[in-house]
C-alpha cells in the first residue's frame, strides 16, 4: 500500500440468510454499498463482522469473495485475530496473497485467565510483521482483556517494520492516542479510533487521523474527519452534532446489529440475522434506529430500493 490511509475505514457486516448460512451475494452487495458510501477503505472479518461466529472455512471464503469483488476499488483490511501465533501468521500470509492492503489484529487473548505476558504479545505481532510486507493495524480494545501500554505500542511501532496503524477503543482513548502520537512520533503512521466514532471529536483533538466505524453511516461521519483535518473545526463540530444521536444509539443500544438492520431495510441484504448466541434487537430499539437513520437519510437505508 503506497498511500497512508486516513479518513473512514468501516467494518463490513457479514450477511447471513435467515437460516444462518453465509450470504455470499449479500456480501458483495454490502461491499458495493460501502464503496458507494465513499469510504476510504473497508475492513472485513472484524468483531462487528461477527468474526468470532465464523468457521475457518467461512473466513477463507469471505476473504476470497471480498477481495475478488472489491478488486482494488478501495483498500481492504483483513482482520486476522487469533490466540495462536501460528494461525495468525497463516491468516496474514493468505490475506496478503489474496490482495489485502492491510491486516488488523488484536493481541492474543482467550478470556481473562489466558492473557500472555507482554513479551508474548510482542512476539505475536513480531511474527506477523516478519511474515508479510503490508501494514498491520493493532486493535486495542477492551474485548481482549489485554493491557497494551503506550510504551509497548511505541516499542512495536519503532521495532516492528509493519506495525504502523493503531485502532484505539479503550476508555479514555483520546489521552492514550495523544500519548502514543507524542511518544511514537513518525512511527505512528495511522492513529485511529473506533467504537462507532462515539469519541471521535475528542480523538481528533488528540491527533487521530481517521476512524473505523460500522457501515451504518460512514458517508455522514467521514466529513467530520475531513473538515477537522482541513482546519474547518466549526463545520466538523456541526456535522458531529448531526450524527451523534445515531452514533450513540448504535453504540449503546444496537451494537453490531445496527448496520445489518438498516441494510436489510434499505434492500442491501435480505436478512439482518445474527448468529446465536447473539439475539435480535427489540422492536423498540429497531424502531428508533430506523427513525434516526431515516432522519439522516443514510445511503444504506435506500441503496437497494
TrEMBL record:
Classification via SMART domains: DHDPS (SM01130)
Name of the featured protein: Dihydrodipicolinate synthase family protein
PANTHER family: 4-HYDROXY-2-OXOGLUTARATE ALDOLASE, MITOCHONDRIAL, DIHYDRODIPICOLINATE SYNTHASE
Keywords: Lyase
Cross-referenced CDD domains: DHDPS-like
Pfam families found in the cross-reference section: DHDPS (PF00701)
Family statement drawn from the similarity comment of this UniProt entry: Belongs to the DapA family.
Signal peptide (residue range): none
Amino acid at each position: 500500500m503506497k498511500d497512508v490511509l486516513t479518513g473512514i475505514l468501516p467494518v463490513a457486516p457479514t450477511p447471513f440468510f435467515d437460516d444462518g448460512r453465509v450470504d455470499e451475494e449479500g456480501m458483495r452487495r454490502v461491499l458495493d454499498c460501502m464503496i458507494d458510501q465513499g469510504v476510504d477503505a473497508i475492513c472485513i472479518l472484524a468483531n462487528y463482522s461477527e468474526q468470532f461466529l465464523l468457521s475457518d472455512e467461512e473466513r477463507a471464503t469471505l476473504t476470497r469473495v471480498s477481495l475478488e469483488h472489491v478488486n482494488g476499488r478501495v483498500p481492504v483490511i483483513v482482520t486476522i485475530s487469533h490466540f495462536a501465533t501460528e494461525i495468525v501468521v497463516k491468516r496474514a500470509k493468505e490475506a496478503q496473497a489474496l490482495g489485502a492492503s492491510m491486516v488488523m489484529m488484536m493481541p492474543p487473548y482467550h478470556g481473562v485467565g489466558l492473557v500472555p505476558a507482554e513479551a508474548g504479545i510482542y512476539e505475536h505481532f513480531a511474527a506477523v510483521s516478519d511474515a508479510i510486507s503490508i501494514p498491520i493495524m493493532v486493535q486495542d480494545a477492551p474485548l481482549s482483556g489485554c493491557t497494551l501500554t503506550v510504551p509497548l505500542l511505541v516499542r512495536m511501532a519503532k521495532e516492528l517494520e509493519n506495525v504502523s496503524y493503531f485502532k484505539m477503543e479503550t476508555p479514555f482513548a483520546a489521552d492514550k492516542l495523544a500519548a502514543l502520537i507524542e511518544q511514537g512520533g513518525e512511527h505512528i503512521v495511522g492513529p485511529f479510533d473506533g467504537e462507532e466514532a462515539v469519541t471521535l471529536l475528542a480523538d481528533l483533538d488528540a491527533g487521530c487521523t481517521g476512524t473505523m466505524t460500522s457501515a451504518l453511516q460512514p458517508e455522514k461521519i467521514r466529513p467530520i474527519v475531513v473538515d477537522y483535518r482541513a482546519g474547518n473545526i466549526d463545520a466538523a463540530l456541526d456535522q458531529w452534532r448531526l450524527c451523534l444521536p445515531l452514533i450513540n444509539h448504535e453504540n449503546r443500544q444496537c451494537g453490531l446489529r445496527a448496520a445489518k438492520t438498516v441494510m436489510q431495510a434499505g434492500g442491501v441484504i435480505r436478512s439482518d440475522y445474527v448468529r446465536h448466541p447473539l439475539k435480535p434487537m427489540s422492536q423498540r430499539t429497531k424502531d428508533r434506529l430506523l427513525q434516526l437513520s431515516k432522519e439522516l437519510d443514510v445511503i444504506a437505508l435506500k441503496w437497494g430500493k
